[in-house]
Specification:
The protein is an all-alpha fold and 178 residues long. 69% of the residues lie in helices and 2% in strands.
Length: 178
């Protein structure tokens, strides 16, 4: 059996870089939310914000790349699986933008600016407003947990294709053999 066509090296790199950034940001965000106010929590909050802005920038780059470079042909699968995969990818792309934008809005509404890597001050997304901040905190968390759930589904589907279907799907993203 021949190797299935792969995504471009840049698409593969962006996929795995975004995957690592999103996973790290989810773990740090979940961990820091349970900490009392402390220098560690403040440091983690800043790292989390930096990661969010980086995820937003990488998502823009990844979307631009995807819109200008055709993906390899799909591996054979049932129509419902193809439709589910497409819908999951569309929602994940929306969340790649919605989660960091909601976090940025939450930070702005809380009265804390986002300063990317302590160097580039980003404009406030919304005016300071405690009630709005409380709502945006919840929205940011719900969107992040929704993204985490979809990532888990995405990973489970990829593993199923590798271990059950043996269709070489993972090889398209640089893993496994065709």
């Amino acid at each position: 059996m021949s190797r299935p066509p792969r995504y471009t090296t840049i698409a593969i790199g962006l996929h795995w870089l975004l995957a690592a950034a999103i996973l790290t940001s989810l773990v740090v965000g979940n961990f820091m939310s349970d900490l009392p106010i402390s220098p560690l929590r403040l440091k983690l909050v800043n790292w989390h914000k930096w990661a969010g802005v980086t995820i937003l920038a990488l998502s823009l780059l990844r979307l631009a790349w995807r819109l200008t470079h055709r993906p390899p042909p799909d591996v054979p699968m049932a129509r419902w699986q193809r439709n589910a995969a497409h819908a999951t990818h569309v929602v994940m792309y929306v969340l790649f933008f919605a989660v960091p934008l909601a976090g940025w809005a939450y930070s702005s509404a809380s009265g804390f600016p986002v300063v990317w890597f302590g160097v580039l001050a980003l404009p406030d997304f919304v005016a300071p407003d405690k009630a709005l901040a409380a709502s945006l905190k919840t929205v940011h968390a719900l969107l992040a947990y929704t993204l985490a759930a979809l990532v888990a589904v995405h990973v489970a589907a990829a593993i199923k294709h590798q271990l059950v279907d043996h269709d070489g799907l993972l090889a398209r993203m640089g893993l496994g053999r065709g």
